[in-house]
């Protein structure tokens, strides 16, 4: 039985792929749960249309992410924190703190787009990666200074 997958399925394929499965698996699992549709001519045309719409949407989102990356390319954020001995911070600087600092400068960024391997726990200057799109990243400079 040939089916078109509507979502990613482990060990079978990705969404939108045409795959051949055993009749029982398709009839008893994939089709009733709406994880796949039969590979008819009409469904193939529908799939191609959905792919073209998705491609256009991704191109538009990538263009918007490129523009935002250019704006954020030279942004510098300064965060003031209380420090103890050996320039260790009381607490830490997290992506939420960085997102709030960016918002105070007028740059609206979702905190889930900021990528910080671990929270910042000492004074200094850090480069923080901002993932705006699957293919577009920007780096912003974060300075942590003593209060």
UniProtKB/TrEMBL annotation:
GO terms for molecular function: rRNA binding; structural constituent of ribosome. GO terms for biological process: translation. Residues 13-40 form the Ribosomal protein L9 domain. Keywords: Ribonucleoprotein, Ribosomal protein, RNA-binding, rRNA-binding. Gene3D superfamilies: Ribosomal protein L9, C-terminal domain, Ribosomal protein L9, N-terminal domain. Pfam families: Ribosomal_L9_C, Ribosomal_L9_N. GO terms for cellular component: ribonucleoprotein complex; ribosome. InterPro entries: Ribosomal_bL9, Ribosomal_bL9/RNase_H1_N, Ribosomal_bL9_bac/chp, Ribosomal_bL9_C, Ribosomal_bL9_C_sf, Ribosomal_bL9_N, Ribosomal_bL9_N_sf. Residues 46-66 are annotated as: Disordered. Transmembrane segments: none annotated. Binds to the 23S rRNA. Belongs to the bacterial ribosomal protein bL9 family. NCBIfam families: L9 (TIGR00158). This is Large ribosomal subunit protein bL9. It comes from Corallococcus exercitus.
């Amino acid at each position: 039985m040939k089916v078109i997958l509507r979502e990613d399925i482990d060990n079978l394929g990705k969404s939108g792929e045409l795959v051949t499965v055993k009749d029982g698996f398709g009839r008893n699992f994939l089709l009733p749960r709406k994880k796949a549709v039969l590979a008819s001519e009409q469904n193939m045309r529908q799939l191609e249309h959905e792919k073209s719409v998705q491609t256009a949407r991704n191109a538009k989102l990538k263009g918007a992410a490129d523009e935002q990356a250019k704006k954020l390319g030279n942004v510098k954020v300064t965060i003031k924190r209380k420090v103890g001995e050996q320039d260790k911070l009381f607490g830490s600087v997290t992506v939420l703190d960085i997102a709030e600092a960016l918002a105070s400068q007028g740059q609206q960024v979702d905190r889930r787009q900021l990528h910080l391997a671990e929270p910042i726990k000492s004074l200094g200057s850090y480069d923080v990666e901002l993932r705006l799109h699957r293919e577009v990243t920007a780096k912003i400079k974060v300075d942590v200074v003593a209060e």
